[in-house]
Amino acid sequence: MITIIKRGTKDVTTCKTCGCVFAYEREDVINEDTDNYKAFREYVTCPQCNTEVVLRQVK
Questions:
Q1: For the whole model, what pTM was predicted?
Q2: Counts for the chain of helices (H) and strands (E), in that order
Q3: Which are the contacts of 53, defined by CB distance < 8 A and separation ≥ 6?
Q4: Whole-angstrom Cα distance, residue 53 to residue 34?
Q5: What does the DSSP 8-state code read for residue 27?
Q6: Is residue 3 predicted with pLDDT exceeding 90?
Q7: In this predicted model, what pLDDT tens digit does every residue of 15-32 receive, in sequence order?
Q8: Beta carbons of 23 and 51 less than 8 angstroms apart
Q9: Does 34 score more than 80 pLDDT?
Q10: N or C: at which end does the chain have fewer Cβ atoms within 10 angstroms?
């Protein structure tokens, strides 16, 4: 029988600028508040071209 010892923590995304497919973990995600107190965005930085890849954004 196969049993999960520890659930995976990595997510995979693709950079829309250079096409790099990379994995990231929760601690790699940067949370940024915007001007509006209800608005924010979460992003990771592409390891190939250093573009901010937005994961979630609330305006």
A1: 0.77
A2: 0, 5
A3: 13, 15, 16, 43, 44, 45, 46
A4: 16
A5: G
A6: no
A7: 999 999 999 999 999 998
A8: no
A9: no
A10: N
Torsion on CA atoms 45, 29, 16, 49, rounded to nearest 10: 10
Higher local confidence (pLDDT), 56 or 5:
56
User: Token pair of 39, please?
Assistant: 């608005």
Which token pair is 43? Answer: 């992003």
Predicted pLDDT at 57? 86
CA distance 51 to 27: 18
Closest CA to 53 of 9, 18, 27: 18
User: Residue 46 is encoded by which pair of tokens?
Assistant: 């592409």
